[in-house]
Design a protein that fits this description.
Shape: globular
Strand content: 5-15%
CATH superfamily: P-loop containing nucleotide triphosphate hydrolases
Number of helices: 8
Distance between the termini: 26 Å
Structural class: alpha/beta
Largest sheet: 5 strands, parallel
Order of helices and strands: EHEHHHEHHEHEH
CATH architecture: 3-Layer(aba) Sandwich
Helix content: 40-55%
CATH class: Alpha Beta
Length: 191
Amino acid sequence: MKENLLVNKKIVISGGPGSGKTTVIKLLIKKGYQCFEEFSRSVISAGKAKGIENLFKTEPLTFSKIIFQERKKQYLSASKINYLQVFPYVFFDRGLHDIVAYLNHYGNPAEEMSIETQNYPYDLVILFPPWKDIYKNDEHRMESFEESVSVFESIKKTYKKFSIPIIEIPFNTPDSRIMSIIEVLKNEDNS
């Protein structure tokens, strides 16, 4: 008899810069969910420490390869997390496909990353559309709001290309967004 192994569903929370992803990830962590936080801010900070204002725009492939390796480690680590029936999900603040989307959006396609990304499917991507009322630039978020909207569309297009199911969660408070996410996941599990 074949053993039925239960595994956590891998859920990406993504969207344009400044759409509230990280706030929601931090709240999910507080609620006991397994989450992997965004890694790119540490790479941006390391670049700034070396005098590079925007490492992605200066060296997009170098920056993206570093992020790709770290997100790949997160993905593989998520596969080893014990399944908990109460919290059967692992959330990611951005996924590997976001890297491909950003590179394509800014005219720096990396075919080898796009091909390798196919080996790391997610069960669902939850997209947060850009939200002008909460959008702020900071030392890590240098895009204009209009650019954020454009990046969002590129991310959405990329996940569709890889046939990963997409659910958009509209503007709302972080707690309301979490309630919407959990409701979506319950509905997905029951379908």
